[in-house]
């Protein structure tokens, strides 16, 4: 076993006067770097010169085969960056009767993960292909050999683009030591590192702190509660590992857009309330908006399901087509509504204490029961935020929860991410028509992943899709969206927190429009544009102004000691009745 001791801890122990002599057995883990091995791994050695690492899969397999053919018995633990690398190496390992290979990934179903602890029969060597989950979370006693790729996949927030980017990075020295320590936990072991000694010397001592690689929106909001009116930059520079200045400024601007900070960086009444919610501020705001628009339960369910990174399907990595088919049975145009309805069905069994029915339901849909129960507990916490955090101005009601378009619109009002569809593209400087292109809020092309109900959709009854999260994969050079929902044009115009402006229409477009006075209706600071008659545009703007005025009134009422105004309450009830009817007419499926 490898024993690591910090010198300071040792000195503290000695100086305490409590020295006790005992026998300590240290089992050494012998390590090998690629430049002192006799293996033909030139591609890997050359790759070590690159700033951004790229795994050479065939070299990894060479090292595994070398251990299998030349070394005494003992399991092999191989650290790889991600699932794609695991599957590629898995396919390249030869099928032999004396080898058994298992995979370990956080999104694999529990039964698959437990297989790594099984002992193979005599004469059979176990190989485990794992991500960095095996660095600290898992100990497999019979592992004698470690193959360390030196690479891990990490998500970092791109401040300029405002999105999470996932890429391959070299690990830290601390991680390399942890990986080496997995070899020979109960007997002497060996570790093979897929990089040179010189590259190891270039590694950072420790992994990048989380505060330097994530969005700071929630952190800045929390800091405002305890920073005595200090501005965000002043507060952040006092931290042990201060984030970049532009990351802090980005978070401040995002909080202002959400109306949680005013222009002087002071908390608004809504900001003070949402600081108590342990959620991303945009998700919290969507829940408060649901109270105002009286569709609370479906919005809370959707926020709970998608604010957690828990993989609810047991086949989440390997059977994405099946997940799409399952969700499509509940809703064919919205991942959010589909998962909400699946969750509602689960809750029916849970509320009735029908454990048998619940397990059969989960088995039929390939859901993981204990993870669904975790989501159920989170749901209760999120409801408690609303019941305990808001003033009793209006009931936590579901009057309009059956209006799918309103539910999506309210989610949009808090989170506000839109994919825009177009049927043309520019490829190699040539116009290509009759293609489906999806653009994010940053005007980047996006790809909807296989598990979405909208994957490979050809018919778009609306050009807009609502999404909650996006990830930029630098390895695959694409922006990925896992879940999205078709949403009407009217919902986008009325419920986005951007202003509507009227602009002139270009002369060459006017001839195609059946209006005496056509204008361009533009959603401020976005690419969303609508060409319509001036009167229609002006009516939409007036409608949005009235809607937002009432909305802001109730936001203040819910987060401040309320002053009841019967006439406003009556007017709002009438507005909701009309809005409900209009959105139902514009619902997209």
TrEMBL record:
It comes from the Eukaryota. One of its GO terms (molecular function) is DNA helicase activity. Gene3D superfamilies: 1.20.120.1080, P-loop containing nucleotide triphosphate hydrolases. Pfam families: Helicase_C, WHD_HA2. One of its GO terms (cellular component) is cytoplasm. Residues 59-227 form the Helicase C-terminal domain. Keywords: ATP-binding, Helicase, Hydrolase, Nucleotide-binding. The keyword Hydrolase applies. InterPro entries: HA2_WH (IPR048333), Helicase-assoc_dom (IPR007502), Helicase_C-like (IPR001650), P-loop_NTPase (IPR027417). PANTHER family: ATP-DEPENDENT RNA HELICASE, ATP-DEPENDENT RNA HELICASE DHX30. This is Helicase C-terminal domain-containing protein. It comes from Acanthoscelides obtectus. The lineage of its organism: Eukaryota, Metazoa, Ecdysozoa, Arthropoda, Hexapoda.
């Amino acid at each position: 076993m490898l024993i690591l001791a910090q010198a300071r801890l040792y000195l503290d122990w000695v100086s305490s006067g409590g020295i006790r002599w005992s026998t300590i057995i240290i089992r050494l883990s012998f390590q090998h770097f690629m430049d002192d091995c006799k293996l033909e791994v030139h591609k890997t050695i050359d790759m070590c010169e690159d700033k951004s690492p790229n795994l050479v899969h065939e070299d990894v397999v060479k090292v595994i085969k070398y251990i299998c053919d030349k070394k005494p018995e003992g399991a092999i633990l191989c650290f790889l960056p991600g699932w794609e690398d695991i599957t590629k190496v898995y396919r390249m390992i030869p099928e032999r009767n004396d080898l058994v290979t298992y995979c370990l990934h956080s999104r694999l179903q529990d039964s698959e993960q437990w297989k790594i602890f099984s002992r193979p029969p005599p004469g059979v060597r176990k190989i485990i292909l794992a991500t960095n989950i095996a660095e600290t979370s898992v100990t497999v006693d019979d592992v004698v050999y470690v193959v360390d790729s030196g690479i891990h996949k990490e998500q970092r927030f791109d401040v300029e683009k405002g999105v999470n980017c996932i890429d391959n990075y070299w690990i830290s020295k601390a991680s390399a030591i942890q990986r080496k320590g997995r070899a020979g936990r109960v007997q002497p072991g060996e570790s093979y590192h897929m990089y040179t000694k010189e590259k190891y010397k270039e590694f950072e001592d420790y992994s990048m702190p989380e505060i330097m690689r994530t969005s700071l929106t929630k952190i800045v909001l929390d800091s405002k509660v305890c920073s005595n009116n200090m501005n965000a930059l002043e507060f952040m520079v006092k931290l042990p590992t201060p984030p970049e200045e532009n990351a802090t400024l980005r978070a401040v601007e995002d909080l202002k857009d959400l109306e949680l900070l005013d222009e002087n960086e002071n908390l608004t009444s809504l900001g003070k309330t949402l600081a108590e919610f342990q959620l991303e501020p945009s998700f919290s705001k969507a829940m408060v908006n649901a109270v105002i628009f009286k569709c609370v339960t479906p919005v809370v369910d959707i926020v709970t399901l998608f604010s957690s990174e828990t993989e609810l399907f047991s086949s989440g990595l390997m059977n994405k087509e099946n997940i799409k088919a399952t969700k499509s049975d509940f809703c064919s145009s919205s991942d959010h509504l589909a998962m909400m309805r699946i969750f509602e069905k689960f809750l029916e069994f849970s509320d009735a204490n029908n454990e048998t029915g619940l397990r059969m339901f989960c088995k039929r849909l390939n859901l993981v029961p204990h993870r669904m129960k975790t989501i159920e507990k989170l749901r209760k916490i999120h409801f408690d935020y609303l019941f305990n955090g808001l003033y009793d101005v209006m009931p936590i009601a579901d009057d309009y929860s059956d209006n799918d378009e309103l539910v999506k619109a309210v989610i949009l009002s808090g989170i506000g991410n839109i994919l825009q569809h177009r049927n043309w593209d520019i490829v190699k400087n040539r116009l290509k028509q009759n293609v489906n292109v999806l653009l994010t809020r940053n005007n980047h092309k996006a790809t909807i992943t296989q598990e979405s109900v909208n994957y490979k959709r050809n018919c778009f009854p609306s050009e807009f899709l609502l999404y909650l999260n996006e990830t930029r994969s630098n390895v695959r050079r694409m922006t990925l969206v896992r879940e999205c929902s078709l949403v009407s044009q009217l919902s986008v115009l009325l419920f986005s927190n951007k202003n509507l402006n009227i602009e002139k229409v270009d002369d060459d477009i006017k001839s195609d429009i059946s209006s005496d006075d056509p204008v361009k209706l533009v959603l401020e600071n976005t690419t969303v544009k609508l060409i319509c008659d001036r009167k229609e545009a002006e009516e939409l703007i007036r409608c949005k102004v009235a809607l937002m005025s009432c909305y802001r009134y109730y936001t203040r009422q819910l987060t401040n000691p309320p002053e009841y105004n019967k006439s406003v309450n009556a007017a709002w009830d009438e507005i909701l009745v009309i809005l409900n009817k209009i959105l139902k007419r514009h619902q997209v499926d």
